[in-house]
Amino acid sequence: MSNRYDVIIAGAGPAGAQCARDLADRGYDVVVLETEAEDEFPAQSNKSTGGTFASMMTSFGIPDDVVMHATGSVVLESPNEHFIQDQPGFVLDFEAFKKFLVEDGRHKGAEYRFDARVRDPIVEDGDLVGVRYNRDQEVFGEIVIDATGPAAPLAKDLGIANLDRENHAIGIEYLFEGVDLNHPEFADLTDAMMLRLDHEYAPGGYSWIFHTGDDTAKVGICYIQNERYQENAIHDRTVDGYLEHWLDTDPRFENARQIAESPVRGSAHVQPPGSMSTDSFMAIGDTVPSVDPVWGEGIYKCMKSARAAAMTADRCLTRTKNISAEEMGVYDDLWNEQVAPRQDRRLMMTRLLYLAPNERYDRLMQDLNKLSRDTLSDINDGSKREIVKLLYPSDISYLWKYWRETQFGSVSYSS
Hints:
Blueprint: E1 4-10, H1 14-25, E2 30-33, E3 51-53, H2 54-59, E4 67-77, E5 82-92, H3 94-108, E6 111-113, E7 118-124, E8 127-133, E9 137-146, H4 153-157, E10 168-177, E11 192-196, E12 205-213, E13 216-224, H5 227-232, H6 239-249, E14 257-258, E15 264-269, E16 277-278, E17 281-283, H7 299-319, H8 325-328, H9 330-339, H10 343-355, H11 358-370, H12 375-380, H13 384-389, H14 396-408
Parallel strand pairs: 1-2, 1-9, 2-6, 4-11, 9-17
Antiparallel strand pairs: 3-5, 4-5, 7-8, 8-9, 10-13, 10-14, 10-15, 11-12, 12-13, 16-17
Helix pairs in contact: 1-3, 1-7, 7-9, 10-14
C-alpha cells in the first residue's frame, strides 16, 4: 500500500464513498479509511431508512438491484387527517447501497482500508498533511476529507465541527412483516412512503412507515431532544418506548411481526452549518449537518455534498494547485448553492412545524388537500408566498415563540 495520496477520506458512508467514486473516476489517488471491519461492513453503520427519489438515483447512477421497493407516493399524516402527494420514490436496501458505492469506487481505482479508526489529523509546521489512525499508523495526502458523521474526529480537532446537543435528533427503526398497509381507518400506504406528525408518538419529531414490498415495511420514529420534546414527552419514555407505544396503539400493526433481529439506530444534527472547510480540508455528509431539516431525508444531501467536495478538490489540485482555505472555501459556496439552498429558511420552517400542537397538524393536512398539488413542493423549496398561504392569525403565538428562541436562546414553552 502507498502511504501518500492526493485525497484522504475518513468514513465509507454514502458521502465518503461517493466522494471517492467521483475522485477516482477523475484519476486521483484516493484512500478511504473506514472504522468497521470489511467482513462486517456496514453492520454498525446501517443507519438510514433508505428513502429517496428518482433524482438521486439518476444523478449518481445507482442501480435498481439495491432497491427494496419502488413507491408511487408520499403520504403525510396527522392524528386525524392525511395528505397524499403523487411522487415516485425508492426505498433502498441501505446495506446493499453502501456496498455498491464501495465496490464501484474500488472498480474506478479508489483504495479502501477497513479496520482503520481515524484518530486525529497530522499537522506539520501548521499545515495539515495527513491522518493518523488506529494506534500509530499514518497516511499522507494533499487534501483530507472528514465523512465520519457526527463523530467528526478530524473536523472537531481542526475547529470546523460545531454540533449542538440541543439540535441532536435520534431515531430508531425496525423492519416488520404483516403490516396492514391499506387499513380502512387510514390512507392507503400500498406503494407509499408515509411520514406522520403526531406528538403522541414522536414528540418534537415525526414517525414513518415505508412500504418495502408485499406486507413488509420499515417502521420508525425520530425526534429532536429540544424544548418541544421536553414539553410533549412522557417522563422516562425512551425512543424505544415511543416506538413500542405506536406499535401497541395503531391497528395497522395488530398482526405485525419484527423481521430484523436488532433495530436500526441513527442520529443527526438539525442546525445550520458553520464553516465547512479550511486549508487542505473539507467536511461532508453528516459531519456537516446535511440532513434535510423538514423531512429528515439525508441520502441525497450527503451525495450532493460529496460531489461538491470532489469538484472542489479537482479544482484545487488541477486548475490552481492551491489548497489554501480561500480556495477550499469554494466547497462552502457550492454547498450553499447546490446542496442545501435556502437552508436557513428550511430550518425556520422546521422549528415552526414542531412548535405546533397536534390540532394544528390536522388543520395543515386539511389545507394541503385544498390547495394546488404543487403547493407542498413549493413550500419544500422554501417559497415564502406558499408558506404564508398556510398561516392563520392564531399562528402568531408560534411565530412569537420562535422569535423569542432565536433572539434569546432556549426558553420554556410550558405556557
